[in-house]
# Entry
Amino acid sequence: MTSSTQLPQGADKVVAVRSMFDAIAPRYDRVNRLLTLGMDVGWRRSTVRSLGLAPGSLVLDLAAGTGDLCRELTSSGHHAIGLDMALGMLVHARTTAPRVQADALVLPTADATADGVTCGFALRNFVDLGRFFAEAARVLRPGGRLALLEVAQPENPLLRAGHGFYFGRVVPVLGGLLSDRAAYSYLPRSVAYLPAPAELLDMLRRAGFGAVDRRLLSAGIVQLITATRSR
# Structure
C-alpha cells in the first residue's frame, strides 16, 4: 500500500487493491465477522431481499470476495456467479457458486444477460465508478435489479463520532492484530473515494437506472442502494 497520508489513484490503485485483498483473503471472513459484530450477515440478507427477484434468477455478484453474497443468493434460490479480480479471494471463497476472475469494469458477460447484480463493500475500491455503473447497466436485462451495499456515516452527530472512532481507530488495530495492519488502515480511509450520496444516486440515473433508492442500515453505518435497469 501507499503511505498513511496518500491514497492510491489510477493504475496504482488497481494494483494496490488487488494485492491487498489477495493478502487478507485467508482470514477475511473471520475478521469481518468480528469487526462488524456479526451484523454483516444481516446486511447481506437485506441486500438479496431488496432485489425482489423470483427464485431461479441469474445474479452476478461483482467484487464477490470470498462469496458471502453468493452464498446468500444461492440460499434464496438464485443462480449466482461471483466475479472478482483478486484471485486470492476466489481461492478462499466458501461458496458453491461458479467463480470467475474478472475486472468489474470490463465484465466478460454479454449484454442484457443478468436478472440482478449485487456488490458488497467495494464501490470505493473501483478506479472509475461511472464505468462500473455503466457495466452493471450493460449486463442487466431491462427491468433487472441492482443492489449495492456500502459503508456510510450515521446522520446523528453522536453516532457519527462514535462510529468514526471505531472505524478509524479500532478497526486498524484489531485488523492488524488478526490480519494485516496496512490493509485494515486503508479500508477506513478508502471512504474518501466515495462521492456524496446525492451524487452517487445521480451517477446511477445517468448510467440508465431508474427507481433509484438509498436507505441506511444499523443506525446509519451502512447504506443499501437499489435501482432498476431502465427499459
